[in-house]
Here is the input.
Amino acid sequence: MNYNAWFECDLGCKFPLTDIIYRCNTCDGLLQVQHDMDALKQRSADDWKSLFEERYMRTQYPYGSGVWGKKEIVCPIIDDENIISMYEGGTNLFWAERFGKQLGVSDLWIKQCGNSHTGSFKDLGMTVLVSMVKQIIAESGNIRAVMCASTGDTSASLAAYASAAGIPAIILLPKEKVTREQLIQPIANGALTLSLETDFDGCMAIVQRLAEREDFYLANSINSLRIEGQKTISIEIVQQFDWEVPDWVIIPGGNLGNVSALGLGFLMMLELGMIDKLPRIACAQAERANPLYRSYQTGFTEFKAITAQSTQATAIQIGNPVSIHRAIRTLQKFDGIVDQASEDELADAAARADRTGLFNCPHTGVALAVLIKMIERKQITKNDRVIVISTANGLKFPDFKVDYHNVTPNTPPPRYLNTPIELEANFDNVLRQIDKHLDV
Here is the structure.
């Protein structure tokens, strides 16, 4: 069967996915990808599940990808020869058994989206977007470059996928606000990398002006093709649990595209009969970059952009998220909540989890801190199945880890401090220190 998808605004205006357009030219609202659900429903829920299981992590290109194995409900109009895939998705669910026991929950899992080609969940959406760019170029040849503003992870993903496709990439980064490890990724992949003396919101303002030109294609999550790839996180989680739905999903929130992406995945499965209920969603924000949390405090009746302050969770240091309204609508549908974490709370939560085998990024630390608060408030109960979305690989943020375990003179040590002990190369001294440690 031929499946179809298109862009559509809230007023019902429709545009082909191959159009270079991000907002409706009538209402100026963000566009969302819509699917021919009647056609999709011609296949039974069990048949969809069987198809996805047959493809999952196999070697038939591109269907072994966690995204493209679900091509019919992601982006069916792209020709297979134009798909640029690095077998994104298929990331593991880490059963945080020991950490969960410490917190008082028995069914805690960390979805390790950072175990991906460029080290973050951004690969899930970027494979769809760059593949669409390749399709457009094959049909018309009008796009000179694909571009994004980024706090680090989006730029890494765009640069890698554009490089694999042979398409020029342009990256706008806030100067000295991304890690060295994030900065080197687009550089190594050959992208034109512009380090601007502003924050992410300043970079975003410029890149949106550049996107008014039709020869530049915008790769930020304002482009809902990204959301289509990212929604497969929801589908993959349920698939990994034999199609059972968790009670809670907790996700860090910055530009907020991933909140609506999670919702889209669950809602599509519900409509296709693949699941029979929805989870609740909690969005976790850094206290220093918390516009959604502030809106939540008003019952979502008000929203004001803010100037985000410096936070260790650099990827979510965003004061004017482009997906704010989509995220609010999603949270309302999922009986969602929004909470925040201070700098100490996010660092301590990440360090505490690290001591049980994890090694997650600071943004995941924000989600873990909110998890702890929700358990303390008894919003999450002992037998709830909880999924925390880890958005990036901890190895991309070594300074965050190193700085936590460095003792600064005249400041209180962090709660989970662990520093190397320097000793002479003497057997008795070494054994004495080992015994002292093990006897604690």
Observations:
- The CA atoms of residues 50 and 239 lie 10 Å apart.
- The mean pLDDT is 95.
- DSSP finds 16 helices and 13 strands in the chain.
- The domain at 93-119+227-401 is CATH 3.40.50.1100 (Rossmann fold).
